[in-house]
Amino acid sequence: MLSQRWCCIVNDYAGRMTTLILTVAGADRPGLVAAVADVVDAHGGNWENSSLAELAGTFAGVIEVSVAPERAEELERALRGLQGQGLLTLAVLTGTPAEDAPDQVLEIQVLGNDRPGIVREVSGVLSAHDLSIEELATETRDAAMAGGRLFEASVVARVPASVDLDALRRDLERIATEVQVDITLA
């Protein structure tokens, strides 16, 4: 059985609401989202943002929930109760989310023949330049005309004001040549 993991990061915004960030991954089956949504609603929570997907039979996602501070612990306990029903395995880590910075957002598209190491190479360049990946979506598919497999990635990254964009572009161009992919920046 694939382990499913929930990570709750609790933050109190001026005493008004607490934000829980939930992450989950595990065997997909009908009713998982409904079970979580029912618990969130039953404890006065508000499902704010989420990104959920099924990949190769595995359900995975991240969910942002807000709840009154006095109900956050109760909601967290109820979410843990889902694992007792066989729906989820729950692990809770507590921390504080990063502060929103007035950074620039960069969109990066990658397309080329699939091969091992593309994500490692591209993410390594982004990390070396202190970019933070906000979203990453990848896909492989059959290359209809050429045969083989195509790899495609879409990346949204935060770029701190201190980053040398020309140096970043040069490093991404170097990686594109090395791994033989097209990289487009927007």
What is the secondary structure topology, with strand pairs?
Elements: E1 11-13, E2 17-27, H1 32-42, E3 46-55, E4 58-67, H2 69-84, E5 104-113, H3 118-128, E6 132-142, E7 149-159, H4 165-179, E8 181-185
Antiparallel strand pairs: 1-2, 2-4, 3-4, 5-7, 5-8, 6-7
Helix pairs in contact: 1-2, 3-4
Pfam families: ACT_6
Domain ACT: 21-95, 107-186
InterPro entries: ACT-like_dom_sf, ACT_dom, GcvR, UPF0237/GcvR_regulator
The Cα radius of gyration reads 20 Å
The CATH homologous superfamily of the largest domain is called ACT domain
Give helix % range.
25-40%
Largest sheet: 4 strands, antiparallel
Structural class given helices, strands, pairing?
A: alpha+beta
Mean pLDDT: 82
Global morphology: flat
Task: Give a quick set of tags describing it.
186 residues, alpha+beta, Alpha-Beta Plaits, 2 domains, four-stranded antiparallel sheet, disordered N terminus, ACT-like_dom_sf, ACT_dom, Glycine cleavage system regulatory protein, UPF0237/GcvR_regulator
